[in-house]
């Protein structure tokens, strides 16, 4: 049976690929974007199987209206994809308060507003699948991405919590953690060049150059393949809570987690000392 999707950030990138993959196999999609003109081609090709919706995910009321309209239009919601987001780039010292708050307003709060709007419908159905686009940057931290990474780390925790809260209602949660994916021109976008850039402090120019070289060395994934893989995940009876999309970051993540475990192990004497005198448990 065909599925009904609600996808944020549908105008380009992975979000657009997800929408097109779903529509091409006969599913129906409520596709949101800041500008619905970017969805005209989809509307022309797929007709009433696609519902274009102008939505700024930072506007909680607008999100509620959009999700309600999608449910009324299609009669149900099966897959909710939180894809809208962007990368704020800058050293922690360079970030303005506005830049940091805006990053969280879109990447974290926007996702929460969508989840809160959709959950009553999914609970009533006793089924549904929430897919959260995180990032490999939601698992490891690298210089110059503090704002973006913090928002994605928060999303990881929020959705892991959500998965435990809604499992009893028959609702599944999957966190997608992409590495770098090519644009339609075939290029791997450089986040240091394509993200929102803070006001630069020359003290970090050397670091910026080194990070640009690292970013350029990562293999670029194929967005269409990512979309086909997402279809497999939402069709699964037992989808994973987390899945990395793309190659290149898995070894880095394994190393980062091994180092964290070792640091905690090495610091056990400090952990015990910080606990203080143990109180015997009552017999």
Walk me through this protein's architecture:
The protein has 283 residues and is of the alpha/beta class. It has a single domain (4-251), classed as Rossmann fold, CATH 3.40.50.720. Helices cover 49% and strands 14% of the residues. The chain contains 10 helices and 9 strands. A 7-stranded parallel sheet has the order 3-2-1-4-6-7-9, sandwiched between helices. A two-stranded parallel sheet has the order 5-8. Helix 1 (13-24) links the parallel strand 1 and strand 2. Helix 1 (13-24) crosses helix 8, helix 3 (60-74) packs parallel to helix 4 and helix 4 runs parallel beside helix 5. The N and C termini lie far apart (58 Å). The relative contact order is 0.12.
List keywords for this structure.
10 helices; globular; Rossmann fold; alpha/beta; 49% helix; 283 residues
Strand content: 5-15%
Poorly predicted runs are 184-193
Element order, helices and strands?
Answer: EHEHEHEEHEHEHEHHEHH
Q: Total helix count?
A: 10
CATH class: Alpha Beta
Mean pLDDT: 92
The coarse silhouette is: globular
The spatial strand order of the largest sheet comes to 3-2-1-4-6-7-9
Q: Main sheet, how many strands, which sense, barrel?
A: 7 strands, parallel
| CATH topology grouping | Rossmann fold
- Give the N-to-C terminal Cα separation: 58 Å
Oligomer: single chain
Give the class from helix and strand content and strand pairing: alpha/beta
How much helix is in the residues? 40-55%
CATH superfamily: NAD(P)-binding Rossmann-like Domain
- Give the second-level CATH assignment, the architecture: 3-Layer(aba) Sandwich
Domain module tally: 1
Number of strands: 9
Radius of gyration: 21 Å
């Amino acid at each position: 049976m065909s599925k009904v999707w609600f996808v944020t950030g549908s105008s380009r990138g992975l979000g657009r690929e997800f929408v097109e993959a779903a529509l091409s196999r006969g599913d129906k999609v409520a596709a949101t974007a800041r500008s619905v003109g970017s969805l005209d081609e989809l509307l022309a090709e797929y007709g009433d199987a696609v519902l274009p919706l102008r939505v700024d995910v930072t506007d909680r009321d607008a999100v509620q209206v959009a999700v309600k309209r999608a449910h009324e239009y299609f009669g149900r919601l099966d897959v909710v994809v939180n894809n809208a987001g962007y990368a704020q780039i800058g050293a922690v010292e360079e970030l303005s308060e506005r830049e940091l708050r805006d990053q969280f307003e879109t990447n974290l709060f926007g996702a929460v507003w969508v989840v809160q709007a959709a959950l009553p419908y999914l609970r009533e159905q006793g089924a549904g699948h929430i897919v959260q686009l995180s990032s490999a940057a939601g698992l490891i931290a690298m210089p110059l991405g503090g704002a973006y990474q913090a928002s994605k780390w928060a999303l990881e925790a929020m959705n892991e919590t959500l998965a435990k809260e809604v499992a009893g209602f028959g609702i599944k949660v999957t966190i997608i953690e992409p590495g770098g994916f090519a644009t339609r021109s075939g290029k791997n976008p450089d986040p240091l060049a394509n993200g929102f850039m803070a006001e630069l402090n020359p003290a970090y120019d050397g670091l910026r150059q080194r990070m640009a070289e690292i970013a350029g060395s990562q293999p670029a994934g194929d967005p269409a393949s990512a979309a086909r893989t997402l279809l497999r995940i939402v069709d699964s009876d037992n989808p994973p809570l987390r899945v990395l999309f793309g190659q290149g970051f898995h070894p880095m993540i394994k190393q980062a987690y091994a180092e964290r475990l070792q640091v905690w192990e090495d610091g056990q004497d400090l952990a015990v000392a910080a606990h203080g005198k143990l109180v015997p448990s009552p017999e």
